[in-house]
Amino acid sequence: MTPHIDWRGKHFSFFQNTRCEFFPCHEIDSAEGFNCLFCFCPLYAKADCGGVGAILANGRKDCSLCTVPHERENYGYILEQLGSK
Predict the structure, then answer these.
(1) Does some domain include residue 2?
(2) Concatenated DSSP letters for 31-82?
């Protein structure tokens, strides 16, 4: 069994690109902690990703209201969901 790892404060778990023409790509209260590391959500293909998404009439997933991959504290959650504990 892999021990729980506290990812908070790990420099490699956060990246911000304020020069990106899309920054921030979601409407948020403060861009200070906006994490760009998972610019394209690696959980997009998962039906139950834990985020706020909706399935559109054309069958595509709309994640425009979701900020799960962009929240600093969710790095560990995303790795766990990908099976990379």
Answers:
(1) no
(2) STTB--TTSS-TTTT-SS-SS--EE-TTS-EE-TT--GGGBGGGHHHHHHHT
| pTM of the full structure | 0.75
User: Is 1 within a domain?
Assistant: no
Number of domains the chain contains: 1
Q: pLDDT tens, position by position, for the chain (85 residues)?
A: 455 666 666 778 899 999 999 999 888 888 888 999 999 999 999 888 999 888 899 999 999 889 999 998 899 999 999 985 5
Query: What is the domain range of residue 47?
Result: 7-85
Buried b (16+ CB within 10 A) or exposed e, 29-60: eeeeebbbbbeebebeeeeebebebeeeeeee
In a domain, 14, yes or no: yes
